[in-house]
Design goal:
5 helices, two-stranded antiparallel sheet, globular, alpha/beta, five-stranded mixed sheet, 32% strand, 161 residues
Length: 161
Amino acid sequence: MTISVGGKLPEATLVEMGANGPETFSLSSRLAGRKVILFALPGAFTGPCTTAHIPSFIRTADAFRAKGVEEIICLSVNDPFVLKAWGESTGATKAGISLVGDADGSFTKGLGMDFTAAHLGLVGRSNRYALVIEDGVITKANIDEPGVCNISTGEALLAEI
C-alpha cells in the first residue's frame, strides 16, 4: 500500500505506554470518527527527530487543536519504553502528543515507508511523513524524501490545512 489522499491506512496494532505499562490498540479504532494528525519519524533520541521534527509538532500542537484536531500521534519503530522516556525528555508528553510504537515495523513496511541506514544503526525504520486523517480517511499527506525533514514538519502541515 502507498499513502495517498482519499485512502485509508491499513489496520495495525500499535503500542504505547499506559498508566500500568505497555498497552496495544487498534489504529482504525483510534482514528474512527475523529480528526487526527499522525506523523512518523525514524526514531526516538535520533538527531533531527529530536532537534527538529518533534519540536515542530510541540510548537504547533495548540494551533492544530484550534483547527479541530483531536489528537496528534507520533509514530516510530521503537518500543514504548523508549518512546515514553523520549516524550518526557522532549516535552512532547507535556504538550499532549501521543507517542506510539510500531514495534516490529509491520505497519511501516506495509505502507512502504520503511528504510534502512545501517551505517547509522537504523534498520527497518520509518521515513518521515505527516498526515491529516478524518474519520480514518487521509485528507492531507506530506511525505519527505529519506534523510530530509522539511515538508513533514508541524509548521509545513499546519500551513496546508
